[in-house]
Design goal:
The complex is a heterodimer. In chain A, strand 9 (226-231) and strand 10 (234-240) form a beta hairpin. In chain A, the strands form 2 sheets. Chain A has an 8-stranded mixed sheet, sandwiched between helices. A 4-stranded antiparallel sheet of chain A has the order 2-1-4-5, covered by helices on one side. Chain A is an alpha/beta fold. Chain A is built from 10 helices and 12 strands. The longest helix of chain A has 18 residues, at 189-206. Chain B is globular and about 85 Å long. Chain B is mostly helical. The chains are: A alpha/beta, B mainly alpha. Chain A binds chain B through residues 53, 56, 58, 62, 82, 86-91, 94-95, 97, 99, 102-108, 116-117, 120-121, 153, 155, 166, 169, 172-173, and chain B through 127, 219-221, 223-232, 239, 242-243, 246, 317-319.
């Protein structure tokens, strides 16, 4: 019944450090269905953004290597010639960025920035059409006074308004896929809710798919249909959102939940995850990558070469260590 | 925008007064007075007569009175007479001003047409061959004293190749010629000093612009532009270069000041008859009326230059406009 929009196959994104290339995204395979919101969750440094940017090849390619397949509609985005990539960028895939102030050119008017994508993707449009379209886009993202904002500069708008402009920009050419890289991280909590509502409403209206990168489980609960939990460049668990929230299995997923304040543990102590995500060079490439952060779990519990296994319908978990996992005493 | 411009204009008045105070105070500390020069030269003047002349010239008046006389005279357009040439200072300056302006203009054109593209290229291709060549050349120019560079220019282009005259600012024999021939001759004379001046002023611009472009291209808004489907070349021309050029464009005022000021060195190296040359000659001859005027002139120029910069900045950078 569901149609695939994106099919990622063994994606590997490596960055050149001093000596060699090191994979920040290390063999990810994922599907995104039409009209679905897939959330990618994980701590900072686990490869989420590296993966998101590789869709449109927005890395500095002088020290980045992308391997594997990102099959989008009818083409493989990995190795797509630049000329065709220009059409995908902003045209078929729209991108929403983390920092709404830094992501707008400070010296261009809002209208100009909204129209820029149109000049490349909708060549037949006249200047008047583009302006009308820009104003309509601002209406869609609920900017209070579009005609006035059209001539404003980014610094004249609030953070929430700027993020709405970024969303309008991403939607300007009706892309089939929207990649939102931590869209609410830089915003106040009250503004966050508004932005999330807006994205959900726009998705219902346009029928596009969203790949939502976040580390905020609250945002996931609010937005996602399906969740992929990422750790150290790998997917460690995927499931639809109800299943994952009801029955998180992988130790990393459970640790993330345990360290998120929730109604159920009011007054209790919030648990933390030992250590930090290893840096790119020090990433363990063999065995369970999460093992160093749960040292009280015996080595025998881990697999030597952990793979994603389907434990129930549509629920995949990597490594066997989840079976007897328990939080540390005391 | 008019408000901020007007405000900067009003601030310039006390600044100019402050400069005049400093110039006047410095002149007070210098040994001797205008008449001392006459005594030394003649040796026959009667000390009584000199005393009378000093009284007549107001040299025994209180300091503040002399200051206001000086300022008052300047405001009326009387800038005093040169002791060395025995002519009004304003005449001497008038002869030199057009030469200096021509030289500065030529230098400025060279700086902006050569240094700016080099800086942009070096910034865009950071780490690549083009950038390494430009950086290397820039490094050499930076470490070379202007004096040596000027001598090399003279040696190669004036003595060996004989493409340019070795000194002076015009050919005095061209009297009854059309303005075009005269103009071309003056450009011809200004060429070598302009190259030396441009090398001096261009180094900083190349370095600054190269860093600026390199910074700008790593900012998030360039990713946004790329993500919208803007081709890489257009991302550079429309976004990165434009934003990097902002400080350069608004720095025009101070660049003019810098180039005019560097004339003090350049003009003397090439014996080019401009204001800088006049300044050094004035200093050597202890010609204080000339020196005072020129210090005042450079001071005023600096203030006006920065005023121009500020105005340019309000034009180019919307964030600076005062509502």
């Amino acid at each position: 019944m569901e149609e695939k929009l994106v099919s990622i196959n063994d994606l590997r994104v490596s960055f050149k450090t001093v000596d060699d290339y090191h994979a920040a995204v290390d063999g990810v395979s994922l599907d995104i269905m039409k009209n679905e919101t897939l959330a990618i969750v994980g701590e900072s440094g686990c490869g989420k953004s590296a993966m998101a940017l590789s869709f449109l090849r927005l890395h500095d390619m002088s020290f980045t290597r992308i391997e594997g397949e990102i099959n989008f509609v009818d083409k493989n985005l990995v190795g797509l010639p630049d000329k065709d990539m220009y059409k995908v960028r902003g045209g078929e895939i729209g991108m929403i960025y983390q920092d709404p102030l830094m992501s707008l050119n400070p010296l261009h008017r809002i209208g100009q920035q909204l129209e820029e994508g149109l000049t490349y993707h909708k060549k037949g449009m006249s200047a008047a059409d583009r302006k009308a379209h820009a104003i309509k886009l601002m209406h869609d993202v609920e900017i209070p006074n579009p005609e006035l904002t059209y001539n404003s500069f980014p610094y004249e708008l609030s953070g929430g308004m700027r993020q709405r402009i970024i969303i309008a920009m991403a939607l300007s050419c009706e892309p089939a896929l929207l990649i939102a890289d931590e869209p609410t991280t830089a915003l106040d909590v009250t503004i966050q809710a508004g932005i999330l509502d807006l994205m959900r409403n726009l998705q219902t209206k346009t029928g596009s798919s969203i790949m939502l990168i976040t580390h905020d489980l609250g945002v996931v609960a609010e937005m996602a249909d399906r969740v992929a939990v990422m750790y150290a460049g790998q997917i460690v668990e995927t499931a639809d959102v109800q299943t994952l929230f009801a029955n998180p299995l992988h130790p990393y997923t459970r640790s993330l939940f345990a360290s998120t304040p929730r109604g159920s543990n009011i007054g209790g102590r919030l648990s933390t995850i030992q250590g930090a995500v290893p840096t790119l060079i020090n990433l363990p490439r063999q065995g369970c990558r999460f093992a160093p952060r749960i040292p009280w779990i015996k080595d025998e519990e881990h697999e030597s070469d952990p793979i994603l296994r389907e434990v129930e319908d549509g629920h995949f978990v990597r490594c066997t260590c989840h079976k007897n996992f328990h939080f540390q005493e005391g | 925008m008019w408000k901020s411009t007007l405000r900067r204009f009003l601030i310039a008045i006390p600044q100019l007064l402050a400069v005049s105070l400093v110039v006047f105070a410095l002149a007070q500390f210098l040994p001797g007075d205008p008449l001392q020069g006459l005594i030394v030269e003649d040796g026959t003047l009667d000390p009584e007569r000199v005393h009378e002349m000093r009284v007549a010239a107001g040299l025994y008046d209180p300091v503040w009175q002399r200051y206001f006389t000086w300022i008052g005279n300047m405001l009326r357009g009387d800038f005093g007479r040169s002791l060395n040439w025995r002519r009004p200072v304003i005449e001497l300056v008038g002869e030199r001003l057009s030469n200096s302006m021509l030289l500065s203009g030529l230098t400025l054109i060279m700086v902006y047409t050569v240094a700016v593209p080099l800086g942009l290229i070096a910034g865009r291709y950071k780490g690549r061959v083009a950038e390494k060549v430009i950086s290397f050349w820039n490094f050499i120019q930076m470490s070379f004293p202007t004096i040596i560079f000027a001598v090399i220019l003279l040696w190669v282009f004036a003595i060996i190749l004989q493409w340019f005259p070795i000194s002076g600012s015009r050919n005095a024999l061209l009297v009854h010629q059309s303005w075009w021939v005269v103009f071309r001759d003056r450009i011809h004379h200004a060429m070598l000093p302009a190259i030396a001046g441009a090398a001096l002023a261009g180094v900083a611009i190349v370095q600054f612009l190269s860093n600026e472009v390199n910074d700008q291209k790593n900012l998030e808004y360039t990713t946004t532009a790329l993500g919208k489907g803007v081709p890489l070349n257009k991302v550079y021309t429309r976004h990165i270069f434009r934003n990097s050029l902002l400080p350069i464009a608004s720095g025009l005022g101070s660049a003019i000041v810098g180039i005019f000021g560097s004339g003090v060195i350049i003009e003397n190296l090439f014996t080019f008859r401009g204001m800088g040359n006049l300044f050094v000659t004035g200093l050597n001859n202890q010609d204080w009326p000339v020196v005072n005027f020129l210090v005042m002139f450079y001071g005023a120029l600096t203030i006006i230059g920065f005023l121009i910069s500020d105005i340019m900045l309000t034009i180019f950078d919307p964030r600076i406009r005062i509502k």
